[in-house]
Design brief:
The complex is a heterodimer of chains A (183) and B (171). Chain A is mostly helical and 183 residues long. Helix content of chain A is 86%, strand content 0%. The radius of gyration of chain A is 21 Å and the shape is elongated. Classes of the chains: A mainly alpha (183), B alpha+beta (171). The A-B interface holds A 36, 38-39, 42, 141, 144-145, 148, 151-152, 154-155, 158-159, 162-163, 166, 169 and B 2-3, 6, 9-10, 13-14, 17, 20-21, 24-25, 28-29.
Chain lengths: 183, 171
């Protein structure tokens, strides 16, 4: 958790510094000479997506680790898990660990939808410029660079998300259903 | 089985993203390279304008950099039918810019007071041009032989020409 907040803040500071330099025109002119304009667009898209995807990457990543540990019968700290669900303590008192994991996964859905929404919007804008509705030559090329930068981040989010969902499905199938059958 | 399906989906998505990123950078680099290649001009056809006593060349610029024709010159060699003597005209100034990927018409005036072209006459034109990427000067040489093929459409003024010549000889 501490690691995630550290990365999150350093990313926000990096993006803020980048925007500050962009508005004052110091960094952009040097980067345009050093990189290509397309490389700069890629970098901006990559960083901008990373700021919003960071919560998802860390969320799904640590969920995957916890779920793997639970499936291999290792001990899991219940309090730590309860904190991550963002639910009031009173609600979680009588809940089992699989249901806590489920709540944790559900709490990440808001961030997931916001992120995929922004990414889809970028995709639509990029495709519109490819139809030459917004002037392909002027902005479309750079918009495509920013889109591909965001696509790299989206790949990681997507991969971690479907892995987490797969593990949740396994937990439901192997543990919850078997336990109820035994009873 | 499901685990295999998920791993394959992730790998395929990775392939698509990697391919997209790679092709994006490659294509933009390639486009920039192409945008800076000067093409060498091509003379599509040359037509002799009998009334104005000039040859009109349509020159195409297939490159993506504008070309500027700075000088024209030509060598006139009479054929068997002509009574004119051969002559050279050089250093005719011109300032014609051919925009990228387009065709321009360049007129080459023959020497004033000379006889109209006859079959078999040869005009070898030299165009000097340059492009903005370097200071070098290039030349383009085009031989133009006045033959029956090239004037099939303009056969009517033949008699007029004879009259004109007779007048001139009379003077």
């Amino acid at each position: 958790m501490r690691m995630q907040t550290f990365v999150q803040w350093s990313l926000i500071i990096l993006l803020g510094a980048l925007l500050f330099f962009a508005f004052t025109g110091i960094l952009v002119s040097t980067l345009v000479i050093a990189l290509t304009e397309e490389g700069l667009a890629f970098l901006l898209g990559f960083l901008g997506a990373l700021v919003f995807a960071n919560k998802l990457i860390f969320g799904y990543g640590s969920f995957t680790i916890t779920a793997e540990a639970f499936l291999s019968n290792k001990e899991i700290d219940r309090r730590e898990l309860a904190k991550k669900t963002n639910e009031p303590q009173e609600r979680l008192e009588n809940l089992s660990i699989p249901s806590l994991l489920m709540l944790w996964l559900q709490s990440l859905d808001y961030y997931k939808y916001a992120y995929y929404g922004i990414f889809t919007l970028m995709l639509i804008l990029m495709l519109l410029t490819k139809f030459n509705l917004l002037g392909e030559l002027i902005i479309g090329n750079y918009l495509e660079g920013a889109f591909w930068g965001a696509a790299v981040i989206t790949l990681f989010v997507f991969a971690l998300e479907i892995t987490a969902k797969y593990l949740m499905g396994r937990i439901l199938k192997e543990i919850v259903i078997e336990e109820t059958e035994v009873k | 089985m499901k685990y295999f399906f998920i791993a394959t989906t992730i790998a395929l998505a990775g392939l698509f993203v990697g391919g997209g990123v790679g092709s994006y950078f490659t294509s933009t680099k390639l486009l920039k390279q192409f945008q800076n290649i000067p093409g060498s001009p091509i003379i599509l056809n040359a037509v002799y304008d009998r009334e104005r006593h000039l040859i009109a060349y349509s020159i195409s610029n297939p490159g993506t950099v504008p070309l500027t024709i700075i000088e024209k010159a030509f060598v006139f060699t009479p054929g068997k039918e002509s009574e004119e003597k051969g002559y050279i005209l050089s250093g005719i100034p011109a300032n014609i810019t051919i925009p990228p990927l387009s065709v321009a018409v360049v007129e080459l005036k023959l020497k004033e007071g000379t006889q109209k072209l006859r079959f078999g006459d040869l005009v070898v034109a030299t165009f000097t041009y340059k492009h903005p990427l370097s200071e070098d000067i290039y030349t383009l040489v085009h031989p133009f032989k006045y033959e029956a093929k090239t004037i099939q459409k303009e056969e009517k003024p033949k008699e007029q020409e004879k009259k004109e010549e007779q007048k001139r000889e009379g003077e």
